[in-house]
Write the structure tokens for this entry.
Amino acid sequence: MKRVFYLYDTDTDSDAVRGCHANRFSQFILIAVVGSCMTTVKDGKSDDVIVSLDTPEKGLWLNKMIWKEMHSFSEGTVLFVLSSHPYNSDEYISHYGQYLELTKG
């Protein structure tokens, strides 16, 4: 792991959605150490998968080039994230249409 960060103070009243991007190189492990959230995972080819992160005893591994959207946060959620690479804004794909083009065939 080259980077560790947390998502917290997510406003549950506004239906906050975090993530909404894919990474060209980084892989991630997501763990809800406090509270819970849902994570929608997309690979650009298969049906979306929605994973509940609701206990610190389970984590979700996300490979590179996987679109992720974290949402439905319970009050006080702290989502712990481990990343395989240091932060690099150039590896982020933040437009879903561009992501779909890159994941074609």
Remarks:
- The two ends are 30 Å apart (CA to CA).
- The chain has a mean pLDDT of 95.
